[in-house]
Amino acid sequence: MDFPALRAEFPVLRRVAYLNAGTDGPLPARAVEAAAQELEREAQEGRSSAHFGRRSELGRDLRRAYAGLLGCEPGDLALTSCTSEGIAGTVAGLPLGPGDEILTSDEEHPGLLGALVAARELRGVSIREVPLARIADEVGARTRLVACAHVGWVSGSTAPAELAEVDVPVLLDGAQGVGAIAVDVHALGCDAYAGAGQKWLCGPDGTGMLYLSASLREQVQVSRRCFGNLLDPDAGLQARLQEDARRFDSPSLSAETLACALAALGLLESVGWAAAHRRARDLAARLAALLAERGREVAPRADTTLVSFASREPEQERAQLAESGCIVRNIPGRPWLRASVGAWNDEADLDRLLATLSR
Question: How far, in Å, CA of 92 to CA of 122, rounded?
Fold first, then answer.
């Protein structure tokens, strides 16, 4: 499949310049159809043993697909409902307490910060914020965990490669990473990587993933136990947890959600991940250059798919852009608008945004 054909798969792009995958990616028509087919099957056939077998099959397929994107084995990956669920479960399960420190950066998303605040308020853990570029150098004697973005949600900056060399576990928030750029958890040297299925993978809300290394899995306690993450759920009070990362699975993901996510992944895979990543990064770099030429300050960024740029009234300008058919987001508390550029976008989307901004 070429990129014009890919673009044609997204109904929203017929109406607007959709540049908001960093919040939620555009949903392809075939993903909607896949979800509808599952719901129709459930309506016609009911939901008994065959239905739950179907759910298990879809879950296995999605786990394999997500693991392939992260460069890990399926047994090292849990299916979650969002990035934040994976982060929260990891932080909550680690044996941390008073005197321990979690090191993070000063540009993190609330989805990560919420888990850190809980660790501070409920267990007395100290939280220290430093600039993302310096985070590897700031690991100290009390640091027990580094938790930060792989790709920063504010501007598209990236975590330093030196994190692979630190002597404490590293948890990366991959919400703006997986699907947008190539990810290899082993090359990154991280012990945990939490990602989203609804952003750059164009899946439905309620999908995500969590990679955990074998060594970190041994440290993370699982307080939430239910049918889905038990090895032998029929053993009653003697039931044991799954032996691999499935112990961290979200309690329940519907068949229609799983099918929708798989169909979206299949579409993106049809153009080739390397080509998709390259096109999105190239379009984002082009947008950044054109914005700078027109006098808009562009936030410092890496070779990623996010482009944040200055706005005097970001909320007001975001609303005005939406009325004109350009969907971006503003960064709360900062004077920035952010465009998220995917492989499904094209130069016409960039031109429409730039033309609207110049009015």
Answer: 10
